[in-house]
Design brief:
By secondary structure, the chain is of the alpha+beta class. The chain is built from 14 helices and 9 strands.
């Protein structure tokens, strides 16, 4: 399955995890975002139509059509990976820079993390009985480094001692201290701010951004009584990470972690304003879940162009002034569709970032408390940003300067 593009990979995921069946009107394929289903129907020999936006606007084989084709070939005993009607997309790679960055990543990661954490001030502790608090910078360093290393808190004690020997931290602490600080709510705004700080070295390169959300599983479960099934149901709980990323380097500029039932659309203004504090925003792409007048206006006020596709029930902005951001986006979407779609499909980069984070640092959270889980998610994105910086140093010659202009 090497050489597949992202559309094919998602198609295989749909075919592998979903039971697809043909009905009277065609094949019903569920949306991966959980927002309804799409209908895939044959229109000619080896030609298909789908009701999704990707197929209707681009007239190409979308992931839903590919999933149906894969399912049919699999049921007929044909190798589903050997269909020849899909154009394979290959991407160039500077392997020399990539190899050098990978070989030196671990050393540079700890060095960059120590440099960034050095800017964290130590809060004053009221006088009183008890041991003095460990340096906040040391604990933040340890929490992020543990996400990078990916071991338990007890096994990570050795890494904290090694960090103290290198001079990265002053006090290694114990695994109990690491667990206690991980679930400390005072660290949440610190870690959230470090996501933006770790992206600063690339602020001169990124002007195009994309936004989306993704879930990270926890060890907690939720139960409820299902009237349909007549029994108690249990499902694994998860936390949702809302992120804005730069589409050229895959750097994460802002993250907000929320419960799983928080809607995506209201989170866009916060992510956009956090990004605009350090970056010049020229474009913002997002899927239909973020379509609202408020979001379009926010992006426009930041001096950027929004690329958010309209829904099937959207109507022409007859009552909106011709010069309004909503009307401008409607005309761009309707009459300059190639330009609109070329910018909109940069949104897939945010899904690439989520895949990178989960593949490298895991999609599960160890903490039992919600605060600890949120802090773990922020730590994963900080670790991702530092890895992106290291790759950019070798490929683009960027220096690490964690200071705002």
């Amino acid at each position: 399955m090497q050489g597949m593009d992202m559309r094919e990979m998602r198609a295989f995921h749909i075919a592998a995890t979903t039971r697809l069946e043909a009905g009277a009107g065609g094949w019903s394929v569920p949306s991966q975002s959980g927002d309804g289903t799409y209908t895939v129907a044959p229109i000619a020999d080896d030609e298909w139509a789908c009701t999704c936006l990707d197929h209707e606007t681009r007239l190409v084989r979308c992931k839903h059509i590919l999933a149906v084709v894969i399912t049919i070939r699999r049921e007929r005993g044909i190798d589903p990976t050997r269909y020849t009607d899909v154009v394979r997309v290959t991407y160039s790679q500077d392997w020399s820079a990539y190899n050098a960055a990978q070989c030196d990543e671990k050393r540079m990661f700890f060095q960059l993390l120590a440099d960034m954490c050095a800017s964290i001030p130590q809060p004053e502790r009221p006088r009183g009985p008890g041991r003095p608090r460990l340096p906040l910078a040391d604990m933040v360093y340890s929490i992020v480094a543990r996400s990078y290393v990916g071991v338990s808190s007890r096994r990570f004690v050795t890494d904290m001692r090694d960090a103290a020997d290198r001079g990265d931290i002053d006090h290694p602490g114990s695994f109990q201290s690491l667990l206690r600080y991980t679930k400390d709510p005072a660290l949440t705004p610190v870690l959230a701010a470090l996501v933006g700080l770790s992206a600063l070295p690339l602020r001169t390169l990124e002007t195009r951004f994309a936004v989306d959300s993704s879930g990270f599983g926890t060890t907690n479960t939720r139960t409820w009584f299902s009237t349909k099934h007549g029994r108690e149901m249990r499902v694994r709980d998860w936390r949702k990470a809302h992120a804005m990323i730069g589409v050229d380097t895959h750097i994460v500029t802002a993250v907000e972690v929320t419960p799983s039932n928080v809607n995506d659309s209201p989170m866009l203004p916060r992510l956009a304003h956090q990004t605009a504090a350090s970056f010049t925003i020229a474009e913002v792409s997002a899927d239909k879940a973020y379509l609202s007048h408020d979001n379009v206006d926010v992006i426009d006020r930041l001096g950027a162009t929004p690329y958010i596709p309209f829904k099937s029930n959207s109507v022409a902005p007859i009552d909106a002034p011709d010069g309004s951001p909503w009307a401008r986006m409607w005309h761009l979407y309707s009459y300059r569709q190639d330009e609109f779609l070329a910018a909109y499909h940069q949104r897939s980069n945010v899904e690439t970032v989520f895949s990178m984070v989960k593949a490298k640092f895991g999609d599960g959270l160890r903490s039992r408390t919600e605060t600890g889980q949120d802090n773990e998610v922020y730590a994963k994105f900080i670790a991702h940003n530092l890895c992106v910086l290291i790759q950019s140093f070798y490929e683009l010659g960027i220096d690490a300067e964690f200071t705002r202009a």
